[in-house]
C-alpha cells in the first residue's frame, strides 16, 4: 500500500519551463483536434495540459478500456509552441500537468469544455448556462494555519473509456502527499441547468496532520456589496462568488456574505449534522458587474451534498486580502471531528453540483443585497435587503420582525422598511464596542416562524483598501498618455 511507504517527491520541472512568465507560458497550448477519441463517435474528448509556469506537478494519465489499462505517453505533438516557446528544450518524458474533458451538453451538438483537472488536486466544471469559475479540490491539509499549507496532488488518473451514448464519464485518481495517500472515484455528469460530480474518497494517512479539509473550494471576492471598487474601475462588483451558503442538519439556511478583511480571517461554523454547503454566485445581473470579458454574472455556484454520514465537524471560511482578481482569496472546507491517524482510513462520499444562482431546494426568503455606511462617529449602518414570497403578506404598518445578534458591537436601533421593489430592508445601526471587526447575524420572522435565511457578515471597522488590477492600471496609463497634449 502506498501510504505504508515513504513519500517520494516529484521529479523537478526543468528550469526553462518552471521560470516561464505567465505571458511566455501562454505560447504553449494544446492543439485542437489532438484530443483522445477525436476520430471516434464516443461522447467525450480528452485534451492535456502542459507543464510549466505554476503547473509543476508530475501527472500520469491512463485510459481504461475493456478492463485493460493503457498509459498515455507525453508527446510534443499534442501541443503548439509559438514565438519564444519554439526554442524550449522539452524532455521526451516530461509528462502532463492535467487534462480537460470536452463533451456535448444534452440537446446540443457542439463539443465544449466541461471538466478540467489541473494543479495539485484542483478541478473545475460548468453547466451549459455557466462558465468556469470557483474551483474545487480533492483535499486540503493544514489549511488556514500559521504555517505552510500542504498541497496533495492527484499524481495519476485512470479515465474509463465511455460507451456510445453515455452521459457520464468515470475517472479514478491517486492522491499523494507527505501526510496522506488517497483513492478517488469521480462520476462526471454534464447538464444544461446543473452539472454534477459524484465523488468517493478513501484516505490513508502516513502521519497525522494538524487539520484535514474535506471538499475544499477556492474562489475570489475583490469588491461588491459592502465594499465599493477603486476609482478608475467602472465595474460595480468583481467576484466569482458572493456568499457561503449552508443548509444545516435541521433544515435551516445560513448565508454568510463574503467580503475582504484588512488581514487574513478564518471563521468556524460547528455542526452536528450537515445537509449541504457551498460558495454561491447569487447575484446574476450583468449590470451589477459590467464585465463582458470575465462574465462574472455567469460564474457557477458550487454546492456540496454529503452522500454518506460525515458525522459532526465544522465548516471553515478563509478570507484574505487580495491585490487583484487573478488571486483566489476565498477558501472553504469541512473539518471532520474525527481526527486523522495512520492505520485508520477516512472515507467520504459527496456530490458536487455546479449551477446558476441559488440552490433549488432553498425556498425561504433570501438576503439578496446589503450595504455598509461608516460614520465619522464610528457608528456603522447596515442595510440588508430580504426578498421572497414569505414576506408578501406584511405591510408598512406591520412589518416583519428583525432578529439580530452581534459580536463586538451594540445594535442601537433597528427597523424594517418596505421598498418599492417589494423587498424588505432591515436597517441596523451598530456601535462597535471593541477592537476588531463587528460580526452580525440577522433574519426576519413573524411571531412564531423564521421567514428568511440567516444573513451573517464580518465587517471591519476601517474599510479595506482596494486597488486597480495591474491590467487596468496599465490601461489607464496608456489612456492618459494618448490624451496628454503633445
Main features:
Beta-galactosidase, Chain A, domain 5, Immunoglobulin-like, mainly beta, globular
Question: What does this protein structure show overall?
Answer:
5% of the residues lie in helices and 43% in strands. With 486 residues, it is mainly beta. It folds into two domains: 2-355, Beta-galactosidase, Chain A, domain 5 (Distorted Sandwich), CATH 2.70.98.10; 366-452, Sandwich (Immunoglobulin-like). The strands form five sheets. The protein has a 14-stranded mixed β-sheet, with no helix packed on it. Strands 2, 6, 7, 8, 9, 10, 15, 20, 23 and 24 form a ten-stranded antiparallel β-sheet that branches. A four-stranded antiparallel β-sheet has the order 26-27-30-29, with no helix packed on it. It is globular, with a radius of gyration of 24 Å. It starts with 14 loop residues before the first helix and ends with a helix.
The number of helical segments is: 3
Q: What share of the residues lie within helices? A: under 10%
Strands across the major sheet, in which order?
4-3-11-12-13-14-25-22-21-18-19-32-31-28
DSSP, total strands: 32
Please write the CATH class name of the largest domain. Answer: Mainly Beta
- Rg is 24 Å
